[in-house]
Every structure is written in structure tokens, then in C-alpha cells.
Amino acid sequence: KESKAKITTIKKWIKDFQDAKIIVDNSNSYTVYELPKSVTTPLALLEQDIKKYGIFISNSQIWAAIPEGADGKVYFSSLSNFEIEIINHMRDEGKAKKLVRIKNVVNKEFIFDTDSENFLTLIGFRKMVSNHGDFRFKGTANDLMKLCDYLFEKMGSGSKIDVLGWQPAGKFWCWNNLALTEDGKDLEINDNGILVLNDTHYYLPSANLIYKNDTTKYPSQKRFVKITNDINFSTFLQQVYKVHREHTISAILYGFTCLFRDVVIEKLNRFPILFLCGPGGTGKDELIEIIQGFTGIPQSPINLEANISTAKGAVRSTAQFRNGISLLSEYKRGNREHDGMLKQFYDNIGYTKGNLDSHISTDYVPIESGVILTGNDFPDAEPLIQRLVWNEMNKNIFNSEELKEFDKLKDMMRGGMSGYAHEILRHRKTIIEDLDKVQRNWKQILKDRFPEAKERMIANMSILASFYQILRDKQIVQFPFDQDSMILHFANGVNNQLRRINSGSMLNKFWDVFIACLRGSQENRITLHREVNIEANLMYLQWTRIYGIVNKQWWQMYHEAPPTKTTLLEQIETAKLIKDRVAAYSFDTGRAAVRSSAIVIDLNSMNDILKDDIIMSVSFQLNSGSLFEDDDSFDNAIIQSQGEQKLPF
Asked: At what angle do helices 418-425 and 247-258 cross, to 10 degrees?
């Protein structure tokens, strides 16, 4: 009466319900269960769940028992149009997650991970399932509690894999499309992103088919794939060596070493940085593509010149893959933040960040990948130079035959390179078992061979040489170069590094003295419009007079004899700071102006810090003893010999 339903309607409901049920064999049960006709699973397989949870799942629906009626029978009502399973509970992050499979009555199926808290409230649960389409839950909060009891006791344990590459917990290598055990056995990853090893389920959200066409989800991880190339690896390496010559040696060895970065870090707590430097058109980018290709489709570089990514962003990019290969491009010297960041990469220092668990607790973002650094510029800080594997590429003019071989290599690269790395990784146990002993031996060999090299430089070369020897001796890789060629290549790198270190140290001292003399007393001052002048971005130096002034100040500052005039000039030239040499130049206007030969320095070729120091020192000299109070006064005070022209600062 209170429901206001008509008697005929109620009778129809009862008839429909009775028509939908089937009588089951209950001879061994004190309770009579009647299952709906649409349930095809035998009662014997469901009875235990019904008794324990009051719920069962069958035929893509969740069913709940209705309390026993007057007739002594238990009937069931459908709570959903889908079935659900928790495949894994995953406690790998700060927030627990569950790997869930749902399938509705029209066979639409999804596997996804979700926060565990979505099972705690009716609204959260309904939202979670409905986000994937026509998935409706009609139960109450009490029904959800019963369902959670059912699902939680049946769920498996597992892990979510966010960082591809080497998996230390499970001891296997994980691409986004295949896995490889430490013993060299391949493991399939199914379309739902699941692989099973030793009864543990691992879930790769990036490999889940539901994200395949979503370009915003896991773009980097989707590149980290095994690609099989039909070309023999030895043939491929021979072509690389033919095209890129001796530069292939440290580049290829570095790529192989990155695949085992975790082992090097564990033993030495450091990992070298490969520096490919030189002018454009030398083939740097193509060689880098090969190295990065060992870990799938090459990842996008972080452009240091653009200064868009922060140091923390660069660290996060290296943390995406364990034993991957990251690229930092367009290095410019003089940026102290970048130099400091690179030193941290070498020293395996990530960064800490606060978390929400406590006002004093932190999380740590580690360095996980090897780093390649490229640029047309060279570092001038000795601590950074020592941390690099130096590969200086200068040849950028090639004949037709060389270009033909280059095109041939590009065609070979289209088949991918990560399949080659996959075969090397099959031998992980064999490769790393002798690494300690071999590396110590190489360290002594190289120390004897290069006594002038710094300790870090020796360590870097010994790491690469160790992998060369192990891969060669165990016949895992057939190299296109021999050991003598490798050592000769190392010698070229060491010589270039030491030259840069010596040049950088000498130049740094020179510019410090130069700036001190711009600000010095009248008796020992480099004077504007007499020994030095600035026009636009060019600085003109009367070299002979400047050297005489610098010579005196050098001893006062360093208590050592200065380099010769010729040596200093050679160092400035080596640093590519000299734009021109002019036979006759007027350092000021008027008849009394000093007129002589001059060295022309391009201020834009200096690092920003040095350039700013020189500009401020010139400004200091101009304003000394004056009443200038604004920035425009400096612009207007410098009168160029070719007419009035403001400086660009």
C-alpha cells in the first residue's frame, strides 16, 4: 500500500523472479540456494564464497544473497553489469595501488591501476569503474564492504614497474615490450602490461594497451623497447667504425657500459659522463643516435642552452630508466649551475624532496642513467673536465665516398639497435663476475701509460676498458678495433683534456689579472682608450702594453712567473676568443689617440660571467671619480673611434 504499486504489478514482479530461478541440488546443505538462470557456474564452485562473503561473481556480474525468506530459500540479486578482480596489491610508492580487471556483460574489458582508497567509499568505487565506460554498480555501502572482503582475500601480490630497465628486486631487465631474466630467458609482457616471474605479477602501465594511442601517457617509456635488427651486429659495428672512425671507440664502449651502470655504481660509486664536442657537421648527432639506440628509440634531449629544464628536471629525466642513456645537449661554458649539476651526475648525487608523511621526512630522486653531454663549447672548470670521457670531433668536411658510407650506415640504423643490447644483456651474470678484478688491473695499466692524467680520468678510462676486455674475451661482442687502437684513442682524449685544463687554468688566471688591472691603481692600470677599447661586442687589446702591465700584477697575485707573451696569446687563441688581428687601430679619438696594432676579442664568445666582470670593470674605471648615477651614463661615456655607438649592455 505504502509503495503505491498496483497489485497486478507486484504479481508480475513475483512471477518474473520465480521464472528466473532454477532449483539446485541441496541434498548436502542445510540452506537451499536458488541461482538465477543466467548463472552458468555450478553451485558447488560458488557455495563457499556465498557462505563466507554473501557474494559471488559469475557471468560478468556481481551477485549478492538476499536474506532467507519464509520458504527457507536464499535468492540472489545482481549488483552490477560487470565482474571485477584485483590482480595485485602494489605497495611500491607512498600511496598504495591496486591492479584491477573489470569486464562488463558485453565483454568490454579493461585492466588498470588505481589508488587503493577508491575501494573505501561507494562514491569512489562507482566513479572508478564508470570512468572506463558502461560499468554500473547498484549495491549499497554494505554490499561494497562484502565485495571488498571477497576481493581483498583473493587478490595477489605484485609490483608496479614505473622505472624500466634493470629491476634489482626481481633481477630482470624490463623493456616496454619484453623482459629478460638474469639467466638470459625472455619473458612476455601481455597486452595488459602484465608479466609473471616467480609467481609475482609485475604491472607496467606504460605497456597497457589502453594507453597505446594516448600520446600524453608514458611517451618516454613507450620508446624504451627492444627492436630486432636483421643485420649482424659485427657487420653493423664495422660500418659504424668505418664512418665515425676512432670516435666510435669511447662512444660504443660507453653505450655498453651504461647497460650495467648499477654494477659500476655499486663498486665505484661514480659513473663517467661521455662528452662529444666539436663544431657542427662532424657527425656527433648521428653517433649519439646509435648510442641512445641501444635502449630503444632515442629519447629527447635536454637542451642546456635553452635553460628551460631545471637541474631537478634533469635528474628526474635520468631517473626514468635504470641503466638507460640520457642526453644533455648544447653545453655552454660558464654556467655554474650546469657545471655543478654535471658533477653531481658523475658523483651519483640525486636530490631530496619533502613528502607529505612528515614535516621532516624526505624522498630521494636518484641518478639512474648514464649521461651524454654534447656541445660546440668546451668546459673550462678543471673538476668538470676530469669527470668527462673526452671525445673531440673536428672533421666536418667529407668526400663523396665518405658520404656514401654514411648513408649506408643510416639505412642500417633504421632497423633499430636495442636488439643488440638485448643480446649483450643475456650475459649479465658472466659480464659482471670479473668486473672488479679487470677494472683494477686496467686502472694500473692506464696509470702507468698516462702518468700525467688525473685520477678521475684514469678511473673513467679503466671502466670502459674493462667492458671492452670482458666483452671481447668472452666473445660476446666482436669489436672492429683492437686494444692498441683503444689506448691510442684514450691518449688523444687525455691530451685534449690536459690541454683544456692547462689552458683553462692559465686563462682563468690571465682574466683575473686583466680584470684586477682594469680596477687597479693608476701606476699599474690597463686604461680604457689607451690599452683597451670596446666597440659593440668587440674588445680591442694593445697586446704588448697589456702584457707588460699583466706581467707585474701576475707576480703580485700568484707569486709565480707569468707565462710568456706568446704562450698567453696562444692560449687565448686556442680558446677561440680572437676574432681578428688589425695592423692599425685608434684606441681613442683625436690627434693624441694611441694608434697601433690590436688583438680583437669577441666578447660574445666568452662565458657570461667573465663578460659581465669585464664590462663592470670598464664601467668602474669610467665612473671612478665622476658623478655618474645611472646606467645610461656608462653607455654615453664610451666614445668609439668610428663614431658614437652605444654598447649592447
From this structure: 60
Domains of the chain: 15-78 (no CATH), 82-159 (no CATH), 161-223 (no CATH), 233-481 (3.40.50), 500-644 (no CATH)
What 3-state class would DSSP assign to 602? Answer: strand
Q: How many residues does the chain have?
A: 649
Handedness of CA 380, 382, 384, 385 (dihedral sign): positive
Cell of 56: 559471488
Give the side-chain half-sphere CA count within 13 A for 466: 25
Secondary structure, 3-state, 212-257: CCCCCCCCCHHHCCCCCCCCCHHHHHHHHHHHHCCHHHHHHHHHHH
Is the model more confident about 529 or about 309? 529
Residues 336, 351: Cα–Cα separation, whole Å: 17
pLDDT of residue 358: 55
Return the closest-CA partner of residue 473 out of 431, 437, 441.
431
* Predicted local confidence at residue 264, as pLDDT: 97
Do 198 and 147 touch, CB atoms closer than 8 A? no
* Tally of CA atoms within 13 A in the half-sphere of 425 that contains its CB: 30
How far is Cα 295 from Cα 279, in angstroms, rounded to an integer?
26
Answer whether residue 342 shows pLDDT above 60: yes
Q: What share of the chain is helix, strand, coil (3-state, %, to 5)?
A: 45, 20, 35
Q: What is the pTM of this model?
A: 0.75
Please give the DSSP secondary-structure letter assigned to residue 31. Answer: S
Q: For a pLDDT cut of 70, what percent of the chain falls above it?
A: 89
* The one-letter amino acid at 326: S
Give the tens place of pLDDT for each residue, 111-150: 999 999 999 999 999 999 999 999 999 999 999 999 999 9
618: which 3 cell numbers?
A: 670598464
- Closest among 383, 386, 564 to 458, alpha carbons compared: 386
CA gap 188, 174 in Å, rounded: 10
| C-alpha distances in Å from residue 438, one per residue of 346, 388, 462, 472 | 21, 21, 9, 13
Q: What is the pLDDT of residues 490-544, one digit of tens each?
A: 999 999 999 888 776 788 889 999 999 998 888 889 999 999 999 989 999 999 9
The whole-angstrom separation of Cα 617 and Cα 607 is 16
- The pLDDT-based confidence of 628 (bands split at 50, 70, 90) is very low
What is the residue-averaged pLDDT of the chain? 88
Q: Are 325 and 300 in contact (CB under 8 A)?
A: no
Going by the DSSP 8-state scheme, the letter that residue 300 receives in this structure is P
C-beta of residue 440 within 8 angstroms of C-beta of residue 459? no
Across 346-353, average pLDDT: 86
